[in-house]
Design brief:
Number of domains: 2
Number of strands: 12
Bound molecules: NADP nicotinamide-adenine-dinucleotide phosphate
CATH class of the largest domain: Alpha Beta
Distance between the termini: 26 Å
CATH architecture of the largest domain: 3-Layer(aba) Sandwich
CATH superfamily of the largest domain: NAD(P)-binding Rossmann-like Domain
Structural class: alpha/beta
Shape: elongated
Helix content: 25-40%
Radius of gyration: 22 Å
Oligomer: single chain
Largest sheet: 7 strands, parallel
Length: 359
């Protein structure tokens, strides 16, 4: 493949001037439309697209309009929304166009979010922050205790030392989280779709993650009932970072929460359709159930006004912001630059989304 074959780029994400200049050195023509409003007449010339999670802009309605397009590089790790575009369901679309995620860049934000929320839940910070901010008054231990749920929980913090974290999904986010958790003397176990260790061959920011998959002391499979049950039964801290696919939708049901050890905490940064809100609330309200939950993604999303999860004393809600960080689209453009260099060198793409699997 020659450089000329990939000379025209469309950028539909807001990047810095210096990153745009870097892209301009790599491509003959760069159409920069951060508002995703690309004039119809240039669609036919575009070889490569760099877009947000939505994928192709609204005026791309058929494959015929984009005959030269070979790569759709997303700024997001999740490809579920981009894959719903009818253009990608036309015959031959996936032979012509490779869709690639920016999985790997969120190691800059989500693992630190996960660690922060585990610590917050283990220290019962959600109650203390809430009382201080709402009342602007120094709460007594009794004040705090009163706001804790009646299910036997108390203000004393729980030490992380010696606990087991179960990483549900062992991709980029989970691997970097595993690396950070080791500093707390936490045992790490992982569940993926086949229960075996694999090397991370995607985009990796140097110094992050667990490339060879050697951190977990054991691997489990979500496709094997007994294995999944054993995984859950050991997970004091259940951390979900799964893509949304037909297999992961409503994967965690009421009975799965019942398999967790008493006093477990649940963190979800993947997608909200992993577990129904009513099942999470039932687990939180059971005397033998969850000690806490931190949810960056919810069912439904957005959560409707007044939803009980917002004010549940054991819950921390963030509105799907754990992945945001300063310079995230520039980081996505670094993935694009690495991909284009691979394309030109005739090497396979990284983070290639399998349209059948959905990630
Ligand atoms: N909250 C946010 O702002 C935010 C930001 C970025 C990403 N996300 C979400 O987080 C997800 C993961 O991101 P990532 O960068 O870590 O992705 P990744 O590197 O592609 O990892 C995905 C992981 O999910 C596992 N998986 C897929 N289907 C599974 C199943 N049925 N059972 C068990 N494991 C399964 C994969 O395992 P195997 O293929 O090896 O089985 C892989 O380990 C994204 O897809 C997105 O939905 C959310």
């Amino acid at each position: 493949m020659t450089a000329q074959k990939f000379s025209t780029l469309a950028v539909c994400a807001n990047i810095s001037k210096s990153k745009l200049d870097e892209l301009k050195k790599e491509f003959h023509t760069v159409h920069y439309h951060p508002d995703a409003k690309i004039p119809d007449e240039i669609l036919k010339d575009i070889d490569i697209w760099f877009t947000r999670y939505l994928g192709f802009p609204a005026n791309v309605k058929s494959l015929e309009q984009i005959p030269k397009t070979r790569l759709l590089q997303l700024t997001s790790a999740g490809a579920n929304v981009a894959l719903t575009n009818p253009v990608l369901h036309e015959k031959g679309a996936h032979n012509q166009i490779s869709v690639c995620s920016a999985s790997g860049i969120h190691t800059m934000s989500i693992p630190q979010y996960i660690i922060a929320q585990i610590v917050n839940l283990y220290m019962k910070h959600q109650i203390q922050f809430h009382l201080c901010r709402t009342n602007a008054h120094w709460p007594t231990r009794q004040d705090i205790q009163q706001d804790l749920p009646a299910s036997g929980t108390n203000l004393s913090s729980l030490p992380l030392y010696g606990k087991t974290a179960g990483l549900l999904g062992y991709g980029h986010i989970a691997r970097e989280t595993a690396r950070l958790l080791k500093a707390f003397n936490v045992t790490v176990i992982a569940a993926n779709s086949n229960g075996s260790k694999r090397v991370d061959d995607g985009y990796i920011i140097p110094g992050t993650g667990d490339i060879d998959g050697s951190i977990p002391s054991a691997y489990y499979s979500t496709n094997d009932k007994a294995s999944f049950k054993e995984f859950l039964s050991k997970s004091d801290i259940l951390i979900a970072s799964l893509p949304s696919t037909p297999q992961t939708q409503w994967l965690l049901k009421k009975e799965h929460f019942e398999h967790l050890p008493k006093g477990a905490v649940f963190i979800n940064v993947g997608r909200g359709n992993l577990a129904k809100s009513e099942d999470i609330i039932a687990a939180l309200d059971s005397p033998y159930g969850l000690e806490g939950a931190a949810l960056d993604v919810t069912d439904p999303e957005p959560l409707p006004d007044g939803h009980p999860l917002f004010t549940h004393p054991k819950v921390i809600i963030t509105p799907h912001t754990s992945g945001d960080f300063v310079g995230s689209f520039d980081a996505g453009a670094d993935v694009l630059l690495a991909q284009v260099r691979r394309l030109r060198a005739g090497q396979p793409l990284m983070n290639l989304v399998d349209p059948q699997k959905g990630y």
